[in-house]
């Protein structure tokens, strides 16, 4: 059994009273610290993702048959729709390696479904 002296119990009650009276401040501070850590980790992750995308820009263009092979392009949600001069120059294996999850080939357009950060990938490949 654990026995506390009267002084120890009074000190424990003081701590409990303090935290109960200031509970809103304690919870608010905890939420603020959590948000700061989340933002810091998110910024670090975004920086790494952008560097990774920048490394793969040449891979995307090479897999599409070069910059001269692209006639038009547009971003639709998580898809990049591209019109090409010669579809035989497309290397789907390289596009998958670069981060394309799937392809939809229509008669005059190639639609690439991008796994993550489609807008950043699009703006890196076609900076206009």
Q: What this model shows, in words?
A:
The structure is a single chain. The protein is of the alpha+beta class and 128 residues long. It has a single domain, classed as Gyrase A, domain 2 (2-Layer Sandwich). It has helices at residues 6-21, 23-63, 92-98, 118-125, and strands at 70-76, 79-84, 100-105, 110-114. The chain has a four-stranded antiparallel β-sheet with strand order 1-2-4-3. β1 (70-76) and β2 form a beta hairpin. α2 (23-63) runs antiparallel to α3 (92-98) and α2 (23-63) crosses α4. The protein starts with 5 loop residues before the first helix and ends with a helix. The model has no long low-confidence stretch (mean pLDDT 85).
Q: Short description, anyone?
A:
The chain is of the alpha+beta class and 128 residues long.
Characteristics of this structure?
128 residues, alpha+beta, Gyrase A, domain 2, 4-stranded antiparallel sheet, 4 strands, 56% helix, rod-shaped
* The named CATH superfamily: Glucose permease domain IIB
- Spell out the helices and strands N to C: HHEEHEEH
Tell me the count of domains: 1
Rg, alpha carbons: 27 Å
**Terminus-to-terminus distance:** 74 Å
Low-confidence stretches: none
Topology:
Layout lengths: L5 H16 L1 H41 L6 E7 L2 E6 L7 H7 L1 E6 L4 E5 L3 H8 L3
Antiparallel strand pairs: 1-2, 2-4, 3-4
Helix pairs in contact: 2-3, 2-4
């Amino acid at each position: 059994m654990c026995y506390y002296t009267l002084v120890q119990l009074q000190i424990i009650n003081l701590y409990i009273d303090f935290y109960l009276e200031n509970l809103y401040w304690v919870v608010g501070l905890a939420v603020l610290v959590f948000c700061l850590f989340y933002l810091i980790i998110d910024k670090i992750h975004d920086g790494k993702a952008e560097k990774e995308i920048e490394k793969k820009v040449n891979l995307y263009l090479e897999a599409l048959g070069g910059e001269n092979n692209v006639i038009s392009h547009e971003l639709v949600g998580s898809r990049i729709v591209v019109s090409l001069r010669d579809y035989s120059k497309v290397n789907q294996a390289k596009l998958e390696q670069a981060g394309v999850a799937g392809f939809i080939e229509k008669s005059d357009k190639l639609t690439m479904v991008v796994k993550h950060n489609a807008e950043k990938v699009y703006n890196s490949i076609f900076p206009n």
